[in-house]
Structures are given as structure tokens and as C-alpha cells.
């Protein structure tokens, strides 16, 4: 029972001293036990009565973690030292000069029972070996943790590449190529100071170019949420550092995919491909980007065969502005009689130059 006693002294009317003793006892407010046993529950930081399990105090401060952490590290260091000392079979006992008493005692012993005393230099040397061994073990542990962190970052990047490739409906070969490129970037530490998202987007863009399945910057930006300029700068940097051959992107690689996204029939797709080939031969759109050439040829072909698509819709699919497509279409319209030959009109009976809109 926890109790405290107080003694008071006072004087009566006659002047004599009278002593009174008052006792204050501590009891449980629930079971009214006069000898309660309180237990500190460290899981909930409460003070609990052992008899009725009632909480009589909360929000207690746990002061065990600091000294336990220190004791744990101390025990670990002692264990490391013990293992290394037992393995190297040496002692750190300091050299003590013999006194007269020890010399007299040692004189009566046999020569075979006298153990050689190790000099201080040997003890210091072996202490340095122990210190270096402990430092080596700490270094190995830090290197292992760093390796595990690099592996986690690499797996996180691989998962992001797979997710983007699956969303863009890219084949497995693009996923594998992009992973290999990112692994080379990580091995050469080229991602230092750059955004990981930009590195991933650039690896996917470079893999698409290498496997002749190119994608535009706008398509990559829409999924990775990385600005186009940042992807362009990162792409040029990786192309130079890795020595990767990206290969040129032509409008032929984009034509079929754009037509499929616009839901055009096969006749419109074939007509757009033929117009693209003739325009290249005549250098009608010389100096224009492949995306602009593909968009303008599709715009002309869709109206030519009676399946018109608005320039705004084509610009959304191709990733270029509507003004760019219309400016390229002006050049095609000015050369329409040479581009749309009689064999082409015979190959597509529904085609007519009268369907072309005037720019």
C-alpha cells in the first residue's frame, strides 16, 4: 500500500503540546483496494491496477528507448570485438613491469611455466588490426545498404517503365530495350542532377526510335507528365553519353498509326501513304517535320476520298498545332495536280479533286 504520514504539533489551552498523526493512503478508485498493485503498461503508456485492470493514469513518458538503443550498440560492439579477438588469438593486456614481489615469486617457478610477456608495441599493433577490422565491417555494412537502395530504385524505375509501355500499348521489345537503357544510365550514374521521370521518358522515347516504332514527344509527355523541352534535353544528353543510335523518324512510320487513331478506312490510309511518297519525291514539303508532313497528307487524303477529318482533330492526334497542318496543306494544295495523278484517281474511284477544301 502506498501511503504517506504527516505529524502536526499544536498547543492546547493549558499550553501543553499535543501531537496528532494523519495518514493518507492510496487506493484504486474502482475496486477500492487499500493495497493496490499498479503496473506501468508501456504499450499504451497507462498506469493499470493489477486487480481490476482499471487505468488510473495515462500519457506516461517512456524513457527506455534511449538507453536501450545505447546498450544495444554497446553490446554489439563488444560482441564484434570478442569475436575478432578470439579469431586472431591475441590479447590487449597492457605490459606491466615486474616488481620485486613478482620477481621473487617468479624465481621459485619452473622455467617451463613462465609465460612470455608481450611487449607494448605488439599490443598496439594488434589493437590497430582490431580497429581496422571493425571499420572494415562497418564499411561493408554501409556498402550493402547502399547496394540495396540502388536495387530498390532500379526496380521502381523498371515498374514505371512497364506501366508507361502498357498504357501506350507498346510491345514487349520496347519495354526490354527501355529497361536496358535505364540500367546503363544507372551504371554510369548519368541520372545525377536530373529528374528520374525525365530519364524514364527519354529511355522509352529512345527505345521506340531504335525499334522503328517511334512516338512523338507529345504522346510521351501526356503519360509521363514531363515537359516536352525537358524530355528533348534529356534525350539529346542520353543519346550523346550512351552513344545510342536513335535513327531518323520519318512520316511513313507515323502514317498508319495516325490513320488508325482517326478511324479512317483502308482506302484513305493507302491514299495518304501514296501522297506522302509522291510529296517526298517532289520535295513539296521539304524542311517540314515528319509529324507535320503526316498530318497534312492525312488531311488532304481524307478529303480526297470523301472521308474528311477536321484539321483540329488531326492536330490533336498528331501532336502539332492546327495552324502547322494548314500551312503544310497549302503547299500540297498548290501542287495538287502533280501530286494527285490519273493512276491515283483510278485506284480510288471515290476520289475527286473537287472535294479538297480551299486553304
Could you explain the architecture of this structure?
It is a single chain. The chain is mainly alpha-helical and 359 residues long. Among the domains are: 3-54, no CATH class; 154-242, Cyclin A, domain 1 (Orthogonal Bundle); 251-355, Cyclin A, domain 1, CATH 1.10.472.10. The protein has helices at 64-88, 100-107, 120-167, 172-187, 196-210, 217-224, 228-242, 251-261, 266-282, 290-304, 311-318, 322-334, 336-339, 342-347; strands at 3-11, 17-25, 38-41, 46-49, 55-57. The strands form 2 sheets. Strands 3-4-5 form a 3-stranded antiparallel sheet, with no helix packed on it. Strand 3 (38-41) and strand 4 form a beta hairpin. It starts with a strand and ends in a 12-residue tail after the last helix. Residues 1-9, 88-96 and 106-115 have low confidence and may be disordered.
| Average pLDDT level | 74
- What is the beta-strand fraction? 5-15%
Q: Major sheet: order of its strands?
A: 3-4-5
End-to-end separation: 102 Å
Order of helices and strands: EEEEEHHHHHHHHHHHHHH
Can you name the CATH architecture of the domain at 251-355? Answer: Orthogonal Bundle
Shape call: elongated
Cα Rg:
43 Å
The CATH superfamily of the domain at 251-355 appears as Cyclin-like
Query: Residue ranges: pLDDT <50 for 5 or more in a row?
Result: 1-9, 88-96, 106-115
SSE topology:
Layout: E1 3-11, E2 17-25, E3 38-41, E4 46-49, E5 55-57, H1 64-88, H2 100-107, H3 120-167, H4 172-187, H5 196-210, H6 217-224, H7 228-242, H8 251-261, H9 266-282, H10 290-304, H11 311-318, H12 322-334, H13 336-339, H14 342-347
Antiparallel strand pairs: 1-2, 3-4, 4-5
Helix pairs in contact: 3-4, 3-5, 4-5, 5-6, 5-7, 8-9, 8-10, 9-10, 10-11, 10-12
Keywords: Repeat, Transcription, Transcription regulation
GO molecular function, one term: RNA polymerase II general transcription initiation factor activity
Protein name: Transcription initiation factor IIB
Amino acid at each position: 500500500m502506498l501511503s504517506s504520514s504527516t505529524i502536526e504539533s499544536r498547543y492546547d489551552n493549558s499550553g501543553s503540546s499535543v501531537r496528532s498523526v494523519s495518514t493518507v493512503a492510496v487506493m484504486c478508485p474502482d475496486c477500492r483496494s487499500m493495497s493496490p498493485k499498479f503496473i506501468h503498461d508501456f504499450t499504451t503508456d497507462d498506469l493499470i491496477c493489477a486487480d481490476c485492470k482499471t487505468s488510473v493514469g495515462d500519457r506516461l513518458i517512456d524513457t527506455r528507448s534511449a538507453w536501450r538503443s545505447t546498450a544495444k550498440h554497446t553490446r554489439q560492439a563488444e560482441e564484434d570485438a570478442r569475436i575478432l579477438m578470439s579469431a586472431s588469438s591475441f590479447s590487449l593486456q597492457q605490459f606491466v613491469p615486474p616488481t620485486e614481489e613478482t620477481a621473487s615469486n617468479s624465481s621459485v617457478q619452473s622455467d617451463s611455466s613462465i609465460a612470455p610477456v608481450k611487449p607494448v608495441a605488439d599490443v598496439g599493433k594488434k589493437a590497430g588490426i582490431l580497429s581496422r577490422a571493425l571499420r572494415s565491417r562497418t564499411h561493408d555494412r554501409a556498402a550493402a545498404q547502399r547496394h540495396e537502395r540502388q536495387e530498390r530504385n532500379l526496380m521502381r524505375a523498371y515498374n514505371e517503365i512497364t506501366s508507361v509501355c502498357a498504357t501506350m500499348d507498346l510491345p514487349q521489345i520496347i519495354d526490354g530495350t527501355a529497361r536496358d537503357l535505364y540500367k546503363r544510365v544507372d551504371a554510369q550514374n548519368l541520372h545525377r542532377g536530373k529528374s528520374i521521370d525525365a530519364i524514364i521518358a527519354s529511355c522509352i522515347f529512345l527505345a521506340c526510335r531504335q525499334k522503328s516504332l517511334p512516338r512523338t514527344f507529345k504522346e510521351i509527355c501526356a503519360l509521363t507528365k514531363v515537359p516536352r523541352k525537358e524530355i528533348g534535353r534529356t534525350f539529346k544528353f542520353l543519346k550523346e553519353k550512351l552513344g545510342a543510335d536513335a535513327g531518323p523518324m520519318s512520316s511513313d512510320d507515323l502514317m498508319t498509326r495516325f490513320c488508325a487513331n482517326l478511324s479512317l478506312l483502308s482506302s484513305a490510309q493507302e491514299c495518304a501513304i501514296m501522297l506522302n511518297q509522291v510529296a517526298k519525291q517532289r520535295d513539296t514539303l521539304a524542311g517540314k517535320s515528319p509529324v507535320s508532313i503526316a498530318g497534312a497528307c492525312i488531311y488532304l487524303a481524307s478529303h480526297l476520298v470523301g472521308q474528311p477529318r477536321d484539321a483540329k482533330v488531326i492536330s490533336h492526334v498528331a501532336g502539332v498545332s492546327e495552324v502547322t497542318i494548314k500551312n503544310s496543306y497549302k503547299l500540297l494544295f498548290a501542287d495538287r495536280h502533280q501530286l494527285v495523278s490519273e493512276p491515283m484517281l483510278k485506284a480510288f474511284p471515290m476520289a475527286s479533286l473537287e472535294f479538297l477544301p480551299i486553304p
